[in-house]
Design a protein that fits this description.
The structure is a homotetramer. By secondary structure, chain A is of the alpha/beta class. Chain A has two domains: 56 residues, Roll (Vcp-like ATPase, Chain A, domain 2), CATH 3.10.330.20; 180 residues, Vaccinia Virus protein VP39 (Rossmann fold, 3-Layer(aba) Sandwich). Chain A contains seven helices and 15 strands. In chain A, strands 9-8-7-10-11-15-12-13 form an eight-stranded mixed β-sheet, sandwiched between helices. Chain A is globular. Chains in contact: A-B, A-C, A-D, B-C, B-D, C-D. At the A-B interface, strand 2, strand 6, helix 2, helix 3 and helix 4 of A face strand 2, strand 6, helix 2, helix 3 and helix 4 of B. Strand 14 of chain B pairs antiparallel with strand 14 of chain C, so a sheet runs across the interface.
């Protein structure tokens, strides 16, 4: 917290969010001597360094840009990617659902482009750890680069390893499977999770969800849940409030379950996924 | 992380989640000598203390319950409340959107029943702070009690104060207005926020959203966004995958904006709320 | 059209919609000498017969009721039912999608409680026909009674018959399968449909949808589509416009396909279900 | 119904739907001697006339097209338009909601591009009538042309007239206001509607909905309802069932009300728009 005064200013090395006409936006790292080419003209980094966040700046053609520190939300949406990413609407929810916060130890497999890695790393700082598994080295490089760019490399350990051999960690609080066949790795996931730990997965198709649910039934997991999240944005003209014309219809189904003491999982915790208000309110 | 071994066991004083038939669930604090009355029989705390998390336990009538540590998600849903709460689907999203994480300094007004306070406190631990304002003392008592019960009192400072007089803090990273007339407090919010900081609000009606958007236009805030989140749960029978019959249709509209350097906000950052892919990808 | 004058009045034998406090509503047939018991008092049919539609009437306790002719929408929602019904949001859409209108000949299987039968019969009047198949006689009785009550019996032919033996009709314009295993009846459906005719189905689970899609692939049908419809109602207080708290999350997935000339269906019409704007706009 | 036999063949003058690679589709009128240029080659109308519907045809380059009669759904989506249209998901629903069917007399204002006119005309054939009002002559020409092309001109009477002067008809069953300021025409609408008749409107913004609801309060209308419909399509690969990536987020809010006997509307029929199951089930 910059106690006691508005000016909180950009420094060389900071990431900056620049939002121009029609809300076109980009994120850049501020480096002395560099220039930023936009479709609306040039911005000199030297004019940005030292400037208060929240300023309006103008390109050499006079087009206005807002100059702001990017949020973790912005960084996730703007990572370089070669895979589908887990979007903030899902990432934010799964953090709460899987009880991930400062100090948590979390496994994710695979790393993908590192979008979820950013969200996890941001949440578990500074004492938690994210163990991010990936089998494709070029993918790992991309994820690592995205994590480094966001300044979160300290809390992420990347592992280039096929998880069919198992995870290196045990006793982790939460484990997220972001890969096409999570049902193949339930045993490995179980071995890595603390008792009572959180298993999560995101899957694009209903067929995969059905298959994962079937695989969870005999496994030592309980309380399976399947959820999807829809985000609808509105146009922000006060006198004409209305949703935007189009929206994302689907990113993936979220599946959650909890790790149980082996042998205790048989029948309970099955049934309807709706958590009811309950007769047993304490 | 309980390194190297499954048994992670409940201790006296822990909060425990107990999930019984039909997924009826409750959260209790484990205390020696206490008993828990459920609709399906009695559980003795002494039989739970020392037991591994993830165990199956049985009431004296033989009904099975799952015994788990509760997540922050569970705690939010089960606070004692006398007001509408911000649900995890919105809370998780706004944490990312407003860049709230470990170390953040965040103001919320009002405290309400403390549901969002839990989410905020959980996210900013251990070095961040939540400043939670409320004018009704009995409401503050409720929020404080809910926060204490969740073990998060260390990071929350409750303030019994009418925010029309302004906030005590300056330079906070994010400020969330969870009250009916946020347009009345934009000046106060601006004074408390760091340059580039995040303003958020949740509002039940479209009329309020239109009014807040109108009030933001002349204020030193930019990049207004309005979003709503829908969560749909599925039944988890693998051979009969389908959404549940009914869902929450509305909890509230989320409104976001960013604090700008005063006098720089005129025209830019207005317009369509849809962030486009952009021609300016760095 | 009651040309030239407001008073359009209820007659004995008419169905009437009565909407009371909190929008509780019911539909009754007006019969001389009868009384209607409501939770808010008694209404005498004799006081209603001859009264203008759109009137306000009062029970003997003074509680106001609106007195209106029911719509087909109202009738569908208020049939006596022992099965899940196809709701107006889906029924209205499938009528357009399957090109069902005045004069259409349509098969449905099964009759169920007759909810969809009402929508179909209402749409194809007076010269079209609905052929409604059912194997359970008590179900057929219920559907027939609901159709008769709505005054639509003239256009519906009920058939008590297992459709595994095929349908009696050929050359029908549209055929709707409202039963759990539509993939078992594609051959029979094909035999009944005119070339280019419309096949429709409603299915509660994703597993069933996947199975029907798989069965359609080798069958002489093309242009498969799967859609779901969500309806969200708003509270109608002008100064507090907002969605209601809860909504129906799922009634069923709609599946559509078109009947092709046998042998011509191989590869085309497959692929992505999204109809694009097209480069070929005429 | 083409009784007893599959071949139902295209004739000169028919409208035909042609669906090509990637489901690109177009609608053309079959005329001897004409050719159809597609992005995938040429089709000769003479090769199509006389061909069974549901056939597969090939362009001169060998690309396959499905050859089908278009549905009213297809025609609505493919009218020439210079305005936003009412989509089939809303049109189908409002037909049931406003009890519009064969024989209904319906007013719409304005005609717009004629999309809703098609749906209304298709539904009220052959004995009903659609009275379609418009003030802009070029718009009326477009709507008329679209209606004529669909073969529905017999049931539509176009009126070039400012409805502030009122409608020419009285006693109509339903009246739909598809214009920006429906609150300006409630008196005129009331004069045209039969007692108990159906008023409908579609509005893009929440502000308009709030204003219309406020105007309905003192007017002789009751039972106001506001609803929105979301349609989500799925990809149709059986082994990979999932929603498409993007969907329409908003076309408009539907508003409904019923015409009451003047002076009877005071307090009743107000309140929550949710129709409950009711204690008064007959």
């Amino acid at each position: 917290m910059s106690v006691g005064g508005k000016p909180s200013c950009a420094r060389a090395g900071d990431l900056a969010l620049l939002v121009g006409p029609k809300r076109r936006w980009r994120i850049v790292r501020l480096e002395p001597g560099q220039t930023l080419q936009t479709h609306h003209g040039v911005l000199n980094h030297d004019d940005l360094i030292g400037r208060p966040w929240g300023s309006r700046v103008a390109t050499h053609l006079g087009h206005p840009y807002l100059f702001l520190p990017p949020s973790i939300h912005d960084l996730i949406l703007r990572i370089r990617r070669i895979t589908q990413i887990v979007y903030p609407k899902e990432a934010g929810y799964l953090l709460l659902k899987m009880n991930i916060g400062p100090g948590s130890h979390v496994i994710e497999a695979g790393s993908g482009s590192g979008g979820l890695t950013l969200a996890l790393a941001h949440a578990v700082r500074p004492d938690g750890r994210v163990y991010s598994y990936e089998t494709r080295s070029e993918m790992q490089r991309l994820a690592r680069r995205n994590v480094e760019r966001a300044g979160l490399a300290d809390v992420v350990e990347f592992r280039l390893r096929d998880i069919v051999e198992g995870f290196e960690e045990t006793g982790v609080n939460a484990l997220f499977l972001d890969l096409p066949t999570p049902w193949d790795y339930l045993e490995q996931a179980y071995a890595a999770l603390v008792n009572g730990g959180y298993l999560g997965a995101v899957l694009p198709t209903a067929n995969q969800v059905a298959r994962l649910l079937a695989a969870l039934e005999p496994a030592p997991f309980g309380l399976p849940e399947v959820e999807e999240i829809l985000l609808r944005a509105y146009k922000t003209v006060p006198a004409r409030l209305r949703p935007v014309d189009r929206m994302v219809a689907h990113t993936g189904y979220l599946v959650f379950a909890r790790s149980l003491v082996s042998g205790d999982a048989e029948a309970e915790g099955r049934g309807d996924a709706e958590r009811t208000g309950g007769d047993d309110v304490s």
